[in-house]
Design a protein that fits this description.
Chain lengths: ~350, ~120
């Protein structure tokens, strides 16, 4: 007991373990220092994301076009509603955590347990939401074409609305079967094949004269952009939107097609820059891992509260320490939310 | 625990309300993207992004000060945590963002172009 919580007994003994620098207990101080180092880790990730984004500032995907799903609203454009809801869930679980800490100060075991329980539920709901978000991101919606140079081409109709590959791709009699190991001598494995081949998309594009190609590049309405003959004359109106090519330029671009991209993985994604999906998976994944460990630690502390461990100590400081960690996770999410979804 | 705590649930709910309102404001700005803010830049970033970053820092302040109860800690603990973070994060972002912009300039303006 003496090792975890300093009690009044040892106060005043400078070398007896009772001395508390900065008037915070050993555990709390170490939690703060851990948080400082973890905050620097996350800053490093977000700064690296910023570097890549500034590097490809003209071609980076627009977040509100990527994250626009909401449960039960299929096909409705709902930019950021869902992540705002996730933010709200996490802030709310932070509130229940701080209420648990508050109840702990008054040594009210039942209330601490109740608020800890709510915090755990909030954390689990957040994790579930993140899984759903990942599912949408990985599955993708529209599909795209990768050129030989590695840039992404998306398809729009003559009003500038996005068109899915499955809406126009032709079905050609050229079945390419997924190769497996048992069918070859040297072959070991290959990634799953896209639903359409490049030739099918090209044939479908030819058969639909209203289709146009949207490139990754942002239309900035500069003089050079206005003089550019390959850009569609009427569809590119507002600056800071992806440029749409004329039909002729679209056909030229599509001739350079190399690969059909559906959804996202660590290699390529249909949204644009390859790094975009990598950073998305890595940073939200690392944050999600923090939430997951936070939930586990909260569960342990929750059971300790129920068993009366802290009641016997006459101190709920452990709740305060996991509370610090939990609020930190919330704090990181606030920044991830800003830099991934808003900026 | 040496210092006696009074229950401050009222403040907790106030901060919760504030954080929710700021988030809603951010999302509204993010959806409508007012052109006056979105198309004008300051220090190579548009005003809208500056607004988001400032609002985020306000949120961070309230989470650390109210929820993590930093306001109740000693000045030395506050400084030991906040000062290195503020300094190192500003430094890191400054270096990396300037570098990113430089690489972009090289890609677009130098003889070897990012042209495919």
């Amino acid at each position: 007991m003496g090792t975890t919580v300093t009690t009044a007994k040892s106060e005043g003994k400078t070398w007896g373990g009772g001395n508390e620098p900065m008037k915070a207990s050993y555990g709390k101080l170490m939690m703060w220092f851990f948080i400082v180092s973890d905050a620097l880790t996350f800053s490093g990730f977000l700064a690296a994301y910023g570097l890549s984004r500034f590097k490809f500032i003209e071609t980076w995907p627009l977040p509100d076009e990527v994250y626009n799903h909401f449960p039960f609203l299929h096909g409705v454009d709902a930019p950021m509603y869902y992540v705002a809801l996730m933010t709200f869930i996490l802030i709310f679980s932070s509130v229940t955590m701080v209420l648990a800490v508050d109840a702990g100060h008054q040594l009210k075991k039942g209330k601490v347990a109740f608020y800890m329980f709510l915090t755990i539920i909030g954390g689990l709901i957040f994790l579930g939401s993140q899984a759903w978000e990942w599912k949408n991101f990985i599955k993708g919606e529209y599909g795209a074409i990768e050129t030989q140079g590695g840039s992404i081409l998306q398809f729009v109709d003559n009003e500038g609305n996005r068109v899915k590959l499955e809406e126009f791709a032709a079905i050609l009699a050229e079945d390419r079967v997924q190769d497996t190991r048992d069918k070859g001598v040297w072959f070991s494995s290959e990634g799953s094949l896209p639903s359409f081949s490049v030739a099918e998309v090209q044939a479908g594009f030819k058969a639909h004269p209203e289709l146009l190609i949207r490139t990754e590049k942002l239309y900035e309405a500069t003089e050079a952009d206005k003089a550019n003959k390959t850009l569609h004359p009427t569809l590119n109106t507002k600056p800071k939107h992806k440029s749409i090519l004329t039909r002729e330029a679209s056909e030229d671009m599509l001739a350079k097609a190399h690969y059909v991209v559906e959804g996202a993985n660590l290699k390529r994604n249909e949204y644009g820059s390859r790094l975009f999906a990598d950073f998305f998976f890595f940073i939200t994944g690392f944050h999600g891992f923090h939430v997951f460990t936070g939930v586990l630690i909260n569960i342990i502390v929750f059971f300790n509260v129920l068993l009366g461990t802290y009641e016997k100590r006459r101190s709920y400081e452990m709740v305060e320490k996991v509370g610090l960690y939990w609020h930190f996770v919330d704090l990181v999410w606030v920044f991830v939310f800003t830099f991934f979804y808003l900026v | 625990m040496s210092h006696e705590h009074v229950s401050n649930t009222k403040r907790i709910w106030f901060v919760f309300g504030l954080l929710s309102v700021i988030t809603v404001v951010e999302v509204i700005f993010g959806i409508f993207k007012p052109e006056a803010l979105h198309l004008n830049t300051f220090l190579s970033m548009n005003y809208l992004n500056w607004l988001f970053i400032i609002l985020t820092i306000v949120k961070a302040y309230y989470i650390v000060w109210a929820f993590m109860h930093m306001e109740g800690e000693t000045a030395s603990l506050k400084n030991a945590v906040v000062t290195p973070l503020v300094f190192l994060i500003l430094y890191l972002f400054f270096i990396l963002l300037v570098e990113g912009d430089y690489i972009y300039e090289v890609f677009t303006n130098s003889t070897i172009k990012w042209n495919f």
